[in-house]
Amino acid sequence: MSGTPAAQGAAAEPAPRTPHQTLALAAMLFAVAMTFIDQTIVSIAAPDIVDELGLSSSGMQWVVNAYLLSLAAFFALGGRLADLLGPRRIVIIGTLVFVVSSVLCGCVPKGDFAQSWLIIFRATQGFGAALLFPAALAVVVAVFPVERRGRALALFFGLSGALTAVGPLLGGWLTGWTWRAIFWVNVPVAVVALVLTVMAHVKDVRRAEKLDGVGAVLIAVGMGLSVLGFQQSAYWGWDSAATWACIVGGLAVLVLFWRYERGRRQPLVNLAVFRDKAFTVDSLVLFFAMLAFVPVFFFASVYAQVSLSASPNQAALYLLYFFAGFAIASQWGGRMLDNKGARLPMKIGTILGAVGFALWAGKLTHLSMHDQWPYVALAGAGIGFILAPASTDAVNRAIGASYGEVTGITQTIRNYAASVGLAVLGTLLTHRMTENVVSTLTSQGLSQDSAKGVAKSIAEAVTGNGDARVPSGTGSAATAARDAMSGVRMDFAEANQWVFYGMAIALGIAFLIALRHPGGKVTPPTSLPMEAPAPPIPTH
């Protein structure tokens, strides 16, 4: 009978709490906010850090690169750990690693150990971010049903991507107080993220599998070495044996990783997901889109400060035109993904991106933000149409693999592409700018050797650490560089045209690849993947 005590007791048992979708999305956005902001915030504060701690130019570049290097090396591991230990748990661990590292970066002591201190804890920051991001994305995918997932991920990618533009603005404001605050600001953000994560009641399910330690070491070494070679190419030179030893050696280790993983029953990265044509197309489109997306922050910011004589804060506002288009298009792209699949928004995005970057490049020599903003926004819209649909479709297509694992793969591809883009486009910018400046100065009567020396000084000032300040000092070289800076604004703008046309070409290649996408909507399981994680795809 329903009135028996046993029946009443059973009826009185509380139902298991379901994840709160809005709180879960907000928690993950706060968590990843720190990782995106820190990709750009340090470059703005670089001159003040160098001045106070007495770091060398190459040492400061290592402080910037250590974060990105660690991020690229450990993303795949982060995605796999989210599977084995549970994405909610890894979000918490990654957040704690990141925020503790941030506090230690802000507490760096002055003296001989300052440079090593900053590099070490910037690297652990990157490790925390590598743990955090794939797990956070896996949580978002898990708590939203398939019919709402496209829009949720569009919001996730749109807002988290826009936070990259917040870095320069926030960095400029905080540095006015103390540059150490750019690291300490992560503490309140982390506290909010952790509180919301607990309140969201996200379920955590672990996969009963073992971690592939050898695979983790191989991919970390391979990614780390090759990315290091690209990062240091600006300093070592493309004719340096060290540059090519790192790049070729890293790629060789990645090939070894691929061969090793094929024979594993429980691999770190399930390479069988690439058997799906759509997943492969999604990954390649993301690769070529990221050749432009991350580098544009650096190159547009430095262009604004050098050629448009903008302050760091004004340069950050210049980037907001890009994110105005990005944010709007990412929402449209999410709706298209839900209604028609990923092929249409990717085609639209790659076309808009290619046209937008090409038109933007053509307007760079006008030296006017007012003339450029429509094309800046158009380029941003192109990227906005691509990122969320391609990333979400990749996750949905790889049904047999876990969400954490697939996110680790796609994010590794994205970060690797960003490193390649920064290195290759940076080399192109330096080469073209030096040629332009030398030509201008020799036409004014300066000797070839003197012109090359001044051009090199300017190149180091604007492309080394993102520091666009006019070289200081009282020596003849510094004086010549200062005199030259006022006359080479157009030279630098013309050099940047090559960079932005390169970005347009990358988006054009992405369009040709997007045409190969099979199209169609994907209907992944409607049940929460955290409740019943899918088994791995067989590797044979």
Protein model, in words:
The protein has helices spanning 5-12, 21-37, 41-53, 57-85, 87-106, 114-143, 146-175, 181-184, 186-200, 213-236, 241-262, 277-306, 312-340, 343-363, 369-397, 403-443, 448-463, 476-485, 489-514. Helix content is 77%, strand content 0%. Among the domains are: 18-206, MFS general substrate transporter like domains (Growth Hormone, Chain: A); 212-267; 433-493, no CATH class. The protein has 540 residues and is an all-alpha fold.
Radius of gyration: 24 Å
CATH class of the domain at 18-206: Mainly Alpha
Shape: globular
- Quote the CATH topology of the domain at 18-206: Growth Hormone, Chain: A
> Structural class, from helix and strand content?
mainly alpha
CATH architecture of the domain at 18-206: Up-down Bundle
Q: CATH superfamily of the domain at 18-206, please?
A: MFS general substrate transporter like domains
What is the averaged pLDDT score?
80
Order of helix and strand elements from N to C terminus: HHHHHHHHHHHHHHHHHHH
